[in-house]
Amino acid sequence: MGRTKKAVKYVVVDAFTDTEFKGNPAAVCLLEEERDEEWLQSLASEFNISETCFLTRITDSDSVHPRFHLRWFTPVAEVELCGHATLAAAHFCFSSKLVTENTVEFSTLSGILTAKKILEPKEPVSMKSEKGDAEQQFLIELDFPAISATDCPINEASLLSNVLNNTPVIEFKQTTSEDYHVILSSADAITAYQPNLEEIKQLPGRGLIISAAASPESGFDFLSRFFCPKFGINEDPVCGSAHCALAVYWSKKLGKCDFVAYAASPRSGIVRLHLDEHNNRVKLQGQAVIVMEGFVIV
Question: Of the residues 34, 51, 130, 156, which is catalytic?
Fold first, then answer.
């Protein structure tokens, strides 16, 4: 006899935005029991958005805060760290009253990650909410590991220059998470870049981050885009984990530890960042909005 079918609760959350159909979408699935990896990957492929994550409550935790197992899957593979899907999972926990306090913990492949509900957010910089004042939203703050980088070898920098169609470049970096980080000469170059995804897929690293300093009048410190076609994500609209590397780089360049960053993908998004150099951590703050909910019958 086959497995008895069960209804799995899910929501689709747009993260790092307060407006539907902006930011980065993630499916959040609440499991009553652990499922095998093939099933998890198949469901992530069925959703076919940048990340699908799976929550399972931990009932025997010795933590003072509610704790859940959390796993993240792209349409083609499991990943070790994902910022926007963690924010989406936390938003679901708080907004559904699954967690009634202001802190939730996630046990992940990257260790224990903490998400906090910030009750009185500041108004988003240069991007007013389209919801008006009827519904007060909240920020979520994630505590993630910082990601360092080193200079790219000359041969790989040459490959990257070709991939970027010889766009003027300031620096070529490679992060410890195996992403390339290329710093371009202007904000306009970031928004104008047209990626050749097949060429990016052939690069030795995992994905490609491009960033540049923002113009002073924009209200942002820097802007970026992230491409990861090897993992089934042509352009990740707002990549939280990439910002853990961006915070480290731009802290050295700008001489500060607090930033407002703009994700310049077509969907766009805003990430507030604080680099804790002493503890080698990055605090990421963002809003989120649920755009879809239902049940998977499998």
Answer: 51
- Rg of the chain, C-alpha, whole Å: 19
Query: Two tokens at 107?
Result: 């046990």
Q: Do the beta carbons of residue 25 and residue 288 sit within 8 Å?
A: no
Residue 120 annotated to the active site: no
Instruction: Please indicate whether residue 47 or residue 119 has the higher confidence score (pLDDT).
Output: 47
Question: Is 0.90 surpassed by the pTM of this model?
Answer: yes
Domains contained in the chain, CATH given: 7-145+286-297 (3.10.310.10), 149-282 (3.10.310.10)
Cα angle, residue 64 at apex, residues 99 and 70 outer, rounded to 5°: 55
pLDDT tens track for 238-273: 999 999 999 999 999 999 999 999 999 999 999 999
34 pLDDT exceeds 50?
Answer: yes
Angle between helix axes 83-95 and 240-254 (nearest 10 degrees) is 110
Please give the Cα distance from 205 to 254 (Å, whole number): 27
Structure tokens at 197: 């995804």
